Amino acid sequence: MSATASGSKATPDGNANSRDHKQGNQERKYTIEQKTAVIRVRKCASTAFYEILSLEKTASDADIKKAYRKLSLLTHPDKNGYEGADEAFKMVSRAFQILSDPDKKSRFDQFGGDPDNRFSNSGAGAAPSPFSGFARSPGGRNPMFDAEISPEELFNQFFGGGMGGGFTPFGGGMGGGPGFVFNMGGAPGIRVHQFGGMGPRRRPRNATGQEDTPPSGLAALTQLLPILLLFVLPILSSLFTGAASSEPDVLFNRSPPNTLRRTTPRFQVNYYVDPQAVDDYSERKLRQLDQRAEVNREGDSEGGKLVIAYDLTIKMAEPSSDADKIRSKRLAKLSQLQPTPRNNDASQDSQENPSEAVVAENTPSRTPTETQQTRRPSVNITKMARPSSPSRPSSASQSAQSPSDDGGRLRITPNPASHITPQKRDVAGTPSSMPSSRAGETIEQFEDRTLRNVFRLTLDHSQTKDIHGQQLYSVGGLRQELEDEGKPIMLTTETLEQAIMEAGSKSGKTTPLDWLIGSFKRLSSIINKFLKERSPANKKWVIVQEARRLCMSWCIFAITTPEVFGLEVDGQKELADRLLLDPEDDNGLSYDFLSELSSRIGDDEPLKEVFVGAVEHLSRRLARLSMDSEYRCYTSLLRNLVNFKPLAIAITESSMFVDASIPAAELEVKTLLGPYFQISPLQAEVTKQYFSSPKTIDEGRAREAQRSLRLTLQTHQNVILDIINHLIRASGDARQRVLDWFALVVNSNHKRRALRVDKSTVSSDGFMINVTLCLDQLCEPFMDATFAKIDRVQVEYLQRHPRVDMKDETKLNADQEASDAFYGRTVEGKNHFISEIFFLTVAAHHYGTEAAHSMLRELEKDLKHMQKQLDQFETDRHKYVNNPMQLRMFESALNKYKDQIDKGLSYKLACQGVLLDELAQTRSMQFMRYLIVWILRLVSPTGKFPAEKLEVPLPKEIPGAFRCLPEYFLDVVSNNFQFILSNMPQIIPSTQSDELVMLCITFLRSSEYIKNPYLKAGLITILFKGTWQWRAGGQGVLADIYNSMPFATEHLLHALMQFFIEAEFMGGHGQFFDKFNVRFEIFQIIKCIWPNAVYRDNLYKEAKLNSEFFIRFVNLLLNDVTFVLDESFTSFLQIAELQKELANAGASLDQAQRQEKEEALASAQGKAKSYMSLTNETMAMLKLFTEALSDAFTMPEVVQRLADMLDYNLDAMAGPKQGKLAVQNKQEYGFDPPALLSEIMDVYLNLSEKPNFILAVARDGRSYKPDVFANAGVILKHHTPKSPEELKKWENLQKKFAAAKAEDEAAEQDLGDIPDEFLDPLLYTIMNDPVILPTSRIVVDRSAIRSHLLSDPTDPFNRVPLKIEDVKPDLEMKAKIEAFKQERMGNKRKEFVETIAGPEKMDLSPG
């Protein structure tokens, strides 16, 4: 076979360089999507099952299966050649196994952790380790993949493999179910091999590219012979020897179902068995099991008992391809690797203690550093002696029998020294740290032996290593001193400090701190495992305890004053490095170490200084990381540290914890907690990684990335909440420092709510969102559904030197002087923690999440503008085509602009992913509900809401505390619910929205409580968005409340009409257009509630009591109808004219002229769309109200204006000029002429029974034209579904108009010339009810001045403020006018004259 064919590479000198072992996927290609999937999955924690599958906790079974199907195909090693795909595939499979099992999923949701792990948080009685949060390397092996079903089997089952026929050793039976799957425990370079199953792997090709020929039946049998021997021989052996077939398996790594941990009494070997298998074992049988475990101690450290042996045999039996043959040969060579026996003093010890000889024999002489640097496991092959009796050998020496024994069974195991570090072996209880007494050993000898082994000290300078190959530290100086003093050459606790100082000064490569940390761990292991009696009566315990105390003291010296060992190192950095290590690491700090450290830190100021400095150092390191980096070890560390109260208190005393001199933009990197809250998907590195091509990204992929980021963020937010909770509970002073930090954050970020935010001067959105969410969760304990603790939120907080700076904020209803006076008064008392958190959370929402909502809206606008600019730039490319240099500059500038757009789009997608987090928004909404109830309680007359019913309108006297509240107390509620209603209305529970509707109605009904009209407009927007249909066939999420809650049915319609009137004067620079937007929303709410008869009944009753209010509403409605119709028709005329000009001009217009006209056309089209939308809604409202309250629209003050408006627009649509409205694509503008004409006709018909309306139409000398009315009827007959009855009414109405017109002209002729004193100076019509204006003393008709005051509350002749109540009747003038009419007309037109005078009383009955 050639070198090429065998997978080797031939070199020119004729040598073939051996090819490195491949996993089988290196030659495969992978897509960007596959790579992204692998990277994302491997960054997840091994038990973050929802995060692995990118699912929410609310995911259904179908969602879980769908996610698994997609991810398993993306990460399957056969399809994905990216490094780590196999590990990602395993994690995906494990996540699916847990979440698809209802019982395991339930346990996981309740407790977290691995449901199959008895010692995880999901176990029934498991106590979580304070170091359980430390993250493992994503590429490391995880025992969870040693479960009963492998990832390959799960994949085959899920994608059609089935579980068909019977189970045989050769491949899964006739049904094609999964066969055996053997692996090497996930070690690098070892592939997973599958035998049997429905879909065997594609046979590898040989060097010529042809598939290898399948082996014949005899060849196949020959290949399977090793498997047969492997399975059959042990079974026969057990039968002939009488060994019990039900003996439990012994594993040396925890792997379900082997979850019960035991420790052997002699060598302290930890092993795991199935708890059910030994449930009924007696003490004697358990001891036998311990002995058996010691004999079989050579098992694989990764938990597989026969895994390597199986894998080797199977691989050797696979001659299907050249590559497989080479792999088999290489594995076979492992049998030639024998450990080199040590020829030192250990040989003597081995004769006395055979068990120790075995360990020494398998442990090469190696320094701890060399051991840590060794990565590739070596393999031992030993012959295991077959038991000669049914019982297992009880002596460990039998495990070391000669390999030449007949009948031995081949065992392949990793060399323990190659993967178990000396530190871990000693802690696990190997002989080097065992304190058990030897025969005849005195307490002094025990003390000497224990201290030597634990600290690895020697008094013999010629001895450099112990029998296990560990470096020993010679203390010759101490030996000399002992000899000089004539003392025994032994170590004692009295001489230990001298030994530590001497050994530490010449520790070599290992630093004194690392050496002492390891010694401390060994001492703690002795105390925890071997010394059950922990009292002064136990001398051994006293010795070990004292040694541990001294060891900790010298650890502290090594940290605080390393000079004692002759070193110049930064103790803070050294400690920080060790803190960051996993506690299981040789140099990592264990729970016992931190516990001891915390007990001393209060009395040791230098230690506290170094410890706090180390935590600060770690904070500064974390400030340089992002969510896309390895940040979890930092957050897990701080989470573990704050579990110790003294450490938590020390952390809050750091000078970095609260520093008011730090600017807002640097709080997240220069305060101690800042970097932990900075971690967010909104960091630039993360948005670039997850949304690298935002313009072309698939919508589904973008949603998946957002969901993944949300899950990661939720996990991180839970960690920082846990940190804050422990800091708050550490002490009273610590709690105050935490509150000070939150206050510093919100008080420093007032500029985040500026109109144009300079991001370089404020904290980032991600940081502020994390702060807000943390505060939301801190509020949860007191936010119960019954509001039982709401009285603990004291309004007096505002006048007790509040942490939150509110003095310069705009107040709800107080000027700056009144605000200063209020906050200047101090109220005695102490603020509760609940009050502190409540007010901090309100401010955090204002400057945090609500500012982010506002930023997102502005960003979307900016991106649209930038895209338009980019399109415009592209049109200028032709200008530079002939100049290469300018073209390059143009391209460079254009690319930079595109990069900015891409960054903005990526940030937008990430921001949406964070803000559209249902869990976070639900928490936010829960707080907002609490805030709403607190505000309503503040303004309620009794101050006891919700225990007592709220009555509106509210009292005229506004509470001073409410007046001086910042506006953002209402603004955060408005913005928060607007965002939720716009983006995720499904999370709003209808049963918990009553308070929201009550808040809106209350302050719209008692609008004088809020000075800013735009705040009230925000309440209208909430009610409006509550009417949106967010699902097909459904209604708005608040619509049911509008129609069922008595408070709403009684007050909502009046509140809407009241603000409709107030919106006339919004006060902003865009108030003219703002009022139309507000009124449009009001119309939608009214349309939603109008079908409810309760609203109409209440409207009729109130109209009788408050006619003035209704007249003002009707007048403004008519103003709007008149304006929007006029603007719409004007725009259509411009559009029609411009379209005609452009069509007729052809090429006669130059480019500039054509562009000018096209821009004018676009402007007119935009106006037409806006105004036509308002026209349709306003006409719909006019139709509704004229039908329900016809008399309100026929009052003398408004009836003539209404008639004139209707006549004018009817003439425009059905008169001679109707052709001018013929624009192209009418539907584009929402313009449907027949439908609009039909609604105008409906208004005429609604008022057809009112004589004064008929007369007003007839008196319209400008637009009343009988032929226009007739033409309108013809149009409606042919273009609208008007019924014959309606068309008949229209014809009769035209006759009434004609008769009224003739009668009015006759009356005017009878009157003849009217004296000027009888004419109204405003309308120049004869007065019916003359009144005298109080300041100008001018006599006008009452209806004329009332009509004027509806739009302008001043005297029209001198502009002095005027109210209708101030005018005085001019009875003398009225008598003169009546006499004049009687003289000219007599009684012949009495009835008609009364009609002109108007109705004496409004009839507001329905219809």
TrEMBL record:
<dbReference type="InterPro" id="IPR045132">
    <property type="entry name" value="UBE4"/>
</dbReference>
<keyword id="KW-0963">Cytoplasm</keyword>
<feature type="region of interest" description="Disordered">
    <location>
        <begin position="1"/>
        <end position="30"/>
    </location>
</feature>
<dbReference type="InterPro" id="IPR036869">
    <property type="entry name" value="J_dom_sf"/>
</dbReference>
<dbReference type="Pfam" id="PF09320">
    <property type="entry name" value="DUF1977"/>
</dbReference>
<dbReference type="InterPro" id="IPR013083">
    <property type="entry name" value="Znf_RING/FYVE/PHD"/>
</dbReference>
<feature type="domain" description="J">
    <location>
        <begin position="48"/>
        <end position="112"/>
    </location>
</feature>
<comment type="similarity">
    <text>Belongs to the ubiquitin conjugation factor E4 family.</text>
</comment>
<feature type="compositionally biased region" description="Low complexity">
    <location>
        <begin position="385"/>
        <end position="404"/>
    </location>
</feature>
<protein>
    <recommendedName>
        <fullName>U-box domain-containing protein</fullName>
    </recommendedName>
</protein>
<dbReference type="GO" id="GO:0000209">
    <property type="term" value="P:protein polyubiquitination"/>
</dbReference>
<keyword id="KW-0256">Endoplasmic reticulum</keyword>
<dbReference type="GO" id="GO:0036503">
    <property type="term" value="P:ERAD pathway"/>
</dbReference>
<feature type="compositionally biased region" description="Polar residues">
    <location>
        <begin position="335"/>
        <end position="354"/>
    </location>
</feature>
<dbReference type="Pfam" id="PF10408">
    <property type="entry name" value="Ufd2P_core"/>
</dbReference>
<dbReference type="GO" id="GO:0005634">
    <property type="term" value="C:nucleus"/>
</dbReference>
<feature type="domain" description="U-box">
    <location>
        <begin position="1313"/>
        <end position="1387"/>
    </location>
</feature>
<keyword id="KW-0539">Nucleus</keyword>
<dbReference type="Pfam" id="PF04564">
    <property type="entry name" value="U-box"/>
</dbReference>
<dbReference type="InterPro" id="IPR001623">
    <property type="entry name" value="DnaJ_domain"/>
</dbReference>
<dbReference type="InterPro" id="IPR018253">
    <property type="entry name" value="DnaJ_domain_CS"/>
</dbReference>
<dbReference type="InterPro" id="IPR003613">
    <property type="entry name" value="Ubox_domain"/>
</dbReference>
<feature type="compositionally biased region" description="Low complexity">
    <location>
        <begin position="363"/>
        <end position="378"/>
    </location>
</feature>
<keyword id="KW-0175">Coiled coil</keyword>
<keyword id="KW-0808">Transferase</keyword>
<dbReference type="Pfam" id="PF00226">
    <property type="entry name" value="DnaJ"/>
</dbReference>
<dbReference type="InterPro" id="IPR019474">
    <property type="entry name" value="Ub_conjug_fac_E4_core"/>
</dbReference>
<feature type="coiled-coil region">
    <location>
        <begin position="849"/>
        <end position="883"/>
    </location>
</feature>
<comment type="pathway">
    <text>Protein modification; protein ubiquitination.</text>
</comment>
<dbReference type="GO" id="GO:0006511">
    <property type="term" value="P:ubiquitin-dependent protein catabolic process"/>
</dbReference>
<dbReference type="GO" id="GO:0034450">
    <property type="term" value="F:ubiquitin-ubiquitin ligase activity"/>
</dbReference>
<keyword id="KW-0697">Rotamase</keyword>
<dbReference type="GO" id="GO:0000151">
    <property type="term" value="C:ubiquitin ligase complex"/>
</dbReference>
<dbReference type="InterPro" id="IPR015399">
    <property type="entry name" value="DUF1977_DnaJ-like"/>
</dbReference>
<dbReference type="GO" id="GO:0003755">
    <property type="term" value="F:peptidyl-prolyl cis-trans isomerase activity"/>
</dbReference>
<feature type="compositionally biased region" description="Polar residues">
    <location>
        <begin position="1"/>
        <end position="17"/>
    </location>
</feature>
<dbReference type="GO" id="GO:0005789">
    <property type="term" value="C:endoplasmic reticulum membrane"/>
</dbReference>
<feature type="region of interest" description="Disordered">
    <location>
        <begin position="334"/>
        <end position="445"/>
    </location>
</feature>
<keyword id="KW-0833">Ubl conjugation pathway</keyword>
<keyword id="KW-0413">Isomerase</keyword>
<feature type="compositionally biased region" description="Basic and acidic residues">
    <location>
        <begin position="18"/>
        <end position="30"/>
    </location>
</feature>
